[in-house]
TrEMBL record, chains A, B:
A biological process term (GO) from this entry: homogentisate catabolic process
EC number of this enzyme: 3.7.1.2
Matching Pfam families: FAA_hydrolase, FAA_hydrolase_N
Ligand binding (substrate): 136, 150, 248, 252, 359
Protein name (Swiss-Prot/TrEMBL): Fumarylacetoacetase
Protein keywords: Calcium, Hydrolase, Magnesium, Metal-binding, Phenylalanine catabolism, Tyrosine catabolism
GO molecular function, one term: metal ion binding
Taxonomic classification: Eukaryota, Fungi, Fungi incertae sedis, Zoopagomycota, Kickxellomycotina
Active site: 141
Binding residues for Mg(2+): 241, 261, 265
Binding site for Ca(2+): 134, 207, 209, 241
Domain spans labelled Fumarylacetoacetase N-terminal: 17-126
EC category: hydrolase
Length: 434, 434
């Protein structure tokens, strides 16, 4: 299948096989709430305009003008896989068929605003995220961090191989790629023999993650099977789960990470659908012991998605240096297992809820998905290429960029970019009664 | 000050000194999304109707018809304390002054629907809760639970006296009082020498908590001082943080409670404002060591709120038995400290965000706020009065009711009820590939 509507470079993240959904505003209206679009090559298709031209007139259950006029994908996500697939198919036919009736209208001058240059739009968060959950599904990452936080003998807890460990995160501070974040202030205890101190985090980190959006959800009190979970997932984004390791280490026992995480989480703005990722399914790592029956599913549970993290250090911000090369396929717990586990208590999942995978570290040092692991808790310098610059953790004004793609035969299913810069901490107002 | 608009019984939860805000529908329209009302005696004042009669015509910054027509309080919460206070004052004048011009209109027949019997309305969740956080702020509860989960030597972690420990909870499963919940399924490991098993929780518990709603929030990256936090709080509700202790114990290390909590959280529907609670401020327990300066505030940080938990056991559901008598004043970490700590990382708080206190246990056994503590982890039976019925944990079809009030001079500031029944667990669909 080839796109004949616009030309798509072979290395583009957004060929006709991809068609990720996002929320955009033309740059002149960057402050406007946005509408739903689909990326193709270096263009954005305006789904409101295409709805008005009748492209989805035969898609049962979809009022395109209404659903795509919203500045979030939640309403579309709630419609379910048959509608998602019908829209995907209608778009592929429109893009590949020169004689498509809507193409005729566009070339006849009715569709000037159907496609807009990607370079001229502002991207927003793709959904109103009701709840955000983060898992801890990479065995390599959990083992590495466990070793550093709790010692070798307690690295992987006894529950870890029996269930996908997860925790509730903060939804309000999830931002779209490109939003700068301030280094957090907080309590930390650099010297365990002394009292804790207050100030900006001295061990700020990135975490290479991906995340899936829940499409259709479940009623409170009604669990989902693994099969239902698989059918409920809408699509995926890249995610940087910024972490303040010193704040986290001091606060996290016994109720888990809190301020060490909630100052900001960055996601890429284009949601790549599970349908686009379907050809890239691969077996997940062998699970031993076998999980309980409610976590078992048929067929391949993993996805072969190449992932990279680059840093632009503040000392030379025109250059990027590779920090991590990893792959989603290393992840021990499959996405569908994460979601089925999440809902097994009866917890209700809603359209637009976001679930992060946890840091996706691989088996080798070059595939470690965080500075904590790369610098082994700050014990060694990480060299940035041959620049002479080194890092143990992220410094002010550093930029971290995550990218990812599935390699097809002559095309790539890419995720665009997940970029964020760390700004200096803001001062906390002087307390009046200190 | 006395209400002359309707008669208010001395033991009523809702005298003129209270005026809690909530979202209601007339029972005939129970499925409608609701609108904002205020409780007085056994009546609900319809704030849309009162806005239409001009009661808030002179309240700067408030479009009453628009703000109170919403089926949530978020828009009102966002307006800030000067508006909250102006509305409270306007309502008190209307209720206490027979010659109030709006009273004249009502008695002239223009306001038939201004007051509706509480018994004839359906109450909804008071707000769209964007994020929900739960703290762990009672020293007695943290010590009791810590002893049971980690042994005497690790009961209170080193961080506990330095910061208000908290964690992110699940917002989607917060329900209004009266909503029945299903017992959760999940993994637990009753025998630590054996593999975990799956099934309905066998150690289902309540937690006596209160929670505050954030009114005005803060921008991402910008912390709040303790003073700003105090000014930002809108009001409080009662909360039952249902907990499945066996699921929680198996899953919670290292990332905190997850499925052991996210199957449901019940709150009372009437939000008692911080302004109504102001006369009941008391000193909080002495904090030793002194917290870091960003957690210090002037004046009394605690609130004297009497709290009770009753159970209606399934064996005799027409009788209530007292389980717990406690008081918010026992809480070690003040509400304003919780909120200032939450935002110190730069985490953005939004109107309608909910923060729970954690279980409010007092120093004596009768004041323990959970079955876990009362039955000391199931080691002893808790007798329900002299009925001969006992409990270690909550059984199917039991009803738990939390109530609370501040005792004024001749009146009570009450919170209404926070009631929930536990229904049997739903079966999880048989996995196809077990």
């Amino acid at each position: 299948m080839e796109c004949t509507f616009v030309s798509v470079a072979p290395e583009s993240d957004f060929p006709i096989q991809n068609l990720p959904f996002g929320v955009f505003s033309p740059s002149a209206l960057a402050d406007s709430p946005g509408r739903v679009g689909v990326a193709i090559g270096d263009q954005v298709l305006d789904l409101v305009a295409l709805s008005q031209l009748g492209l989805f007139a035969h898609t049962a259950g979809l009022d395109g003008v209404s659903v795509f006029s919203k500045p979030y994908l939640n309403d579309f996500m709630a419609l379910g896989r048959p509608v998602w697939r019908a829209v995907r198919q209608a778009l592929q036919e429109f893009l590949s068929n020169d004689r498509h009736p809507v193409r005729q209208q566009v070339s006849g001058g009715n569709g000037a605003a159907v496609a807009i240059a990607l370079s001229s739009v502002t991207m927003h968060l793709p959904a109103k995220i009701g709840d955000y959950t983060d898992f801890y599904a990479s065995r390599e990452h959990a083992s590495n961090v466990g070793m550093m936080f709790r010692g070798k003998d307690n690295a992987l807890m006894p529950n870890w191989t029996h269930l996908p460990v997860g925790y509730h995160g903060r939804a309000s501070s999830i931002v779209a790629s490109g939003t700068a974040l301030h280094r957090p202030n907080g309590q930390r205890r650099p010297d365990p023999a002394k009292a804790p101190v207050f100030g900006p985090s001295a061990r700020l980190d990135y975490e290479l993650e991906m995340a899936f959006f829940v499409g259709t959800g479940n009623e409170l009190g009604t669990p989902m099977t693994v099969e239902q979970a698989e059918a409920a997932m809408f699509g995926m984004v890249l995610m940087n789960d910024w972490s303040a390791r010193d704040i986290q280490a001091w606060e996290y026992v016994p109720l888990g990470p809190f301020l060490g995480k909630n100052f900001g989480t960055t996601i890429s703005p284009w949601v790549v659908t599970m349908d686009a990722l379907e050809p890239f399914r691969v077996a997940q790592p062998t699970q031993d012991p076998e999980p309980l029956p409610y976590l078992l599913g048929a067929g391949a549970g993993g996805y072969d998605i190449n992932l990279e993290v680059h840093i632009k250090p503040h000392e030379c911000s025109d250059k990027s240096f590779l920090l991590t090369q990893s792959n989603l396929k290393y992840m021990y717990w499959a996405l569908r297992q994460q979601l089925a586990h999440h809902a097994v208590s009866g917890c209700n999942m809603r359209p637009g809820d976001l679930c992060g995978t946890g840091t996706i570290s691989g088996p080798t040092e070059g595939s470690f998905g965080s500075m904590l692991e790369l610098s082994w808790s700050g014990q060694r310098d990480v060299a940035l290429g041959d620049s002479g610059i080194t890092r143990k953790f992220i410094e002010d004004r550093d930029v971290i960029k995550i990218s990812g793609y599935c390699q097809g035969n002559g095309f790539r299913i890419g995720f665009g970019e997940c970029v964020g810069q760390i700004l200096p901490a803001k001062q906390v107002g002087p307390p009046k009664h200190a």
